[in-house]
Amino acid sequence: MNDAACDLAYAIPWRTSGVRVGAHKSYLSGSSGLFRDVVPLTAFPDPRRIAVRASLSDPFERLLVRRAEQPSAIDVVVLVDVSASMAFEGHCNKMALAADIAEALAICTERTGDTFALLPFDSVLRPDLLLWKTLSRAAHLDAIDRLRHAKAEHKGIEGIAEAGAAIAGSRKLVFIVSDFLWPEEGARAAAEALAFHDVVAIELRDSLEIEDLPRWGLLNLRDLETGRHRLVAMRPSLKAKWLTLRNERRDRITRVLDANAREMFTIRDSIDWMRLTAYLLYGAA
Question: What was the pLDDT predicted at 2?
Answer without folding.
Answer: 67
